[in-house]
Amino acid sequence: MALISEHIEGDTRERILEVAERLFRLIGYQKTTVGDIAKELRMSPANVYRFFESKKAIHQAVARGLMGEVELEAQRIVAKPGPVKERFRELLTTVHRMNTERYVGDNKLHEMVEIAMQEDWAVCVNHMECIAGVVGQMIAQGVASGEFEAPDLQLAALCACTAMMRFFHPQMIAQCATKPGPTIDQMIDFVIAGLSPRH
Amino acid sequence: MALISEHIEGDTRERILEVAERLFRLIGYQKTTVGDIAKELRMSPANVYRFFESKKAIHQAVARGLMGEVELEAQRIVAKPGPVKERFRELLTTVHRMNTERYVGDNKLHEMVEIAMQEDWAVCVNHMECIAGVVGQMIAQGVASGEFEAPDLQLAALCACTAMMRFFHPQMIAQCATKPGPTIDQMIDFVIAGLSPRH
Q1: Which CATH superfamily is domain A56-195 in?
Q2: Which chain A positions have a beta carbon within 8 Å of B196's beta carbon?
């Protein structure tokens, strides 16, 4: 019985997050109320509050979910076989593509990102550290295969991610889309050059 | 007589811009009115409007002035003698330092930057292109001296500037100051590595 009820509770939590994400996308984070989310789920706001103490807590969980998908995909690319440089390019391109899909353009999730960046930096910093960690693992593989040279892996990963800011950071993706600059492939070439061995 | 009156007119223009910049710094762009600027100069608002058709025109001229100082200093570094890598580092560090002094911190000029970025992208894009041009000249000197390798100078300059976004872009300087990341010297090392010849 305990297991079943835990299962149902987890299920309800997931459903709240799904509906919240959909409403945030559709009408924006600010305009969505806990009441809207409850109504959509045909439950009482009080029931939503049993799972999340505030709209902010829902926001955090939705943000974690969205960022978690990017992290999972990044980890999948690092774990699969193949030449490092190709997978390195795939990794950086995937982070760019997924961040663009999630936070830029017509959908209103960019509002959520702005709020996360103002109020909830810990969630963002954890995500950036996770992505930098995965990039570091990939660079380590490149060092092992002789494709890369990096005396300090963590620093190399931080520099590679910082160099990609125009393509990773949601606000920069949106702001730079129509501004002069390198393509993402050109930028990745530049980062790979910075990591390549000099004999 | 014509020369004298032109001189006086130019002088008045300069004085309006000086006062406007001081007020923008002190009380912010939004809160400063053309009336405030006129009062400070002991002239009528109508006289200010003889020189600038709107507050926006004053804003543009102040922004151009601030950016022009950075451009001038960058050009000075490119023109002086000495090893390229040292001057390249000095160039990137100077752009970072001057942008930080101008737009970040206690003074309220960051409000002006935000408005320029929303409404007045041409001014910002021109400035970015000018800085990329100077960075390109420096890379060309490095190619000539054998310190750098760059088959496409313009692309190399764009990539170098893009890689430095965390340290060049006023909003990113402000946002990243307390976030994990490389130091500017570490980032410049990474950019130099990307430009260094591979034999």
Answers
A1: Tetracycline Repressor, domain 2 (1.10.357.10)
A2: 198
C-alpha–C-alpha distance, residues B73 and A62, integer Å = 46
* Per-domain boundaries in chain A: 1-53, 56-195
- The CATH class, in words, for B1-53 is mainly alpha
Q: From chain A, pick out residues whose CB is under 8 angstroms from the CB of B175.
A: 117
Residue A194 contacts B where some CB pair is shorter than 8 Å = yes
pLDDT of residue A111: 83
d(CA B8, CA A149): 61
| Touching B: A residues 8-47, CB under 8 Å | none
B59 pLDDT higher than 70: yes
- For residue B9, pLDDT over 80 is answered with no
The DSSP line for B37-91 is: HHHHTTS-HHHHHHH-SSHHHHHHHHHHHHHHHHHHHHHHHHHS-S-HHHHHHHH
